[in-house]
């Protein structure tokens, strides 16, 4: 099992990054590759999960051990594969997901792509009580999540609006970390903020 990869970040692609380790390029699939933008062409350490199945071997990369741990727990849930787990991790911080599971907030969980009500209930059934004692988060807030379902929907609406204006998936994903960090989650304000960021690229 490959626990982590340390090398030079040479490429950032739409759904993966490539890290050069002494002349060997490792492709690591990530929830949001563009969170590593500031480390491009620099030495970086990426936590990894080596996924093996009959017809493929893939490496998944994570910015910290909490994200990797949650990924391994999510793919253990019936109905969630690696792609679905990355979709969840790319939508909100680890603490927000853990909080939603503890609250049994299936509406919040179904806001993620590919997660229906049945799968959301399965996530809660399988993982409730198994995250807060292991994740290195100071205190999971079981009343209010880090990002609400409304926040996630506003960000998604802003992303769709940008694509309608002609921006590519790559360009939109590149500004997602800044959008998620924006204090206001009003869709119109998010679009204005996004356009401002895109003009600077």
From TrEMBL:
Pfam families: HHH_5, RuvA_C, RuvA_N. CDD domains: UBA_RuvA_C. Residues 150-201 are annotated as: Domain III. Its main location: cytoplasm. Keywords: Cytoplasm, DNA damage, DNA recombination, DNA repair, DNA-binding, Hydrolase. NCBIfam families: ruvA. Homotetramer. Forms an RuvA(8)-RuvB(12)-Holliday junction (HJ) complex. HJ DNA is sandwiched between 2 RuvA tetramers; dsDNA enters through RuvA and exits via RuvB. An RuvB hexamer assembles on each DNA strand where it exits the tetramer. Each RuvB hexamer is contacted by two RuvA subunits (via domain III) on 2 adjacent RuvB subunits; this complex drives branch migration. In the full resolvosome a probable DNA-RuvA(4)-RuvB(12)-RuvC(2) complex forms which resolves the HJ. Belongs to the RuvA family. This is Holliday junction branch migration complex subunit RuvA.
């Amino acid at each position: 099992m490959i626990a982590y990869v340390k090398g030079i970040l040479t490429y950032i692609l739409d759904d993966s990054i490539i890290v050069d380790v002494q002349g060997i390029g490792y492709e690591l699939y990530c929830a949001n590759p563009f969170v590593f933008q500031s480390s491009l062409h620099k030495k970086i350490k990426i936590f990894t999960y080596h996924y093996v199945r009959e017809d493929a071997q893939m490496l998944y990369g994570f910015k910290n051990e909490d994200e990797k741990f949650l990924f391994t727990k999510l793919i253990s849930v019936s109905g969630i594969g690696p792609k679905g787990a990355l979709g969840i991790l790319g939508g909100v911080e680890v603490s927000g997901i853990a909080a939603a599971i503890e609250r049994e907030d299936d509406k919040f969980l179904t806001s993620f792509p590919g997660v229906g009500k049945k799968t959301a209930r399965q996530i809660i059934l399988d993982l409730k009580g198994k995250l807060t004692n292991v994740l290195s988060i100071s205190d999971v807030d079981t009343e209010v999540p880090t990002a609400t379902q409304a926040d996630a929907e506003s960000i998604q609406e802003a992303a769709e609006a940008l694509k309608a204006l002609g921006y590519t998936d790559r360009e939109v994903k590149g500004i997602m970390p800044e959008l998620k960090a924006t204090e206001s989650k009003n869709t119109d304000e998010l679009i204005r903020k996004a356009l401002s960021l895109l003009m600077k690229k």
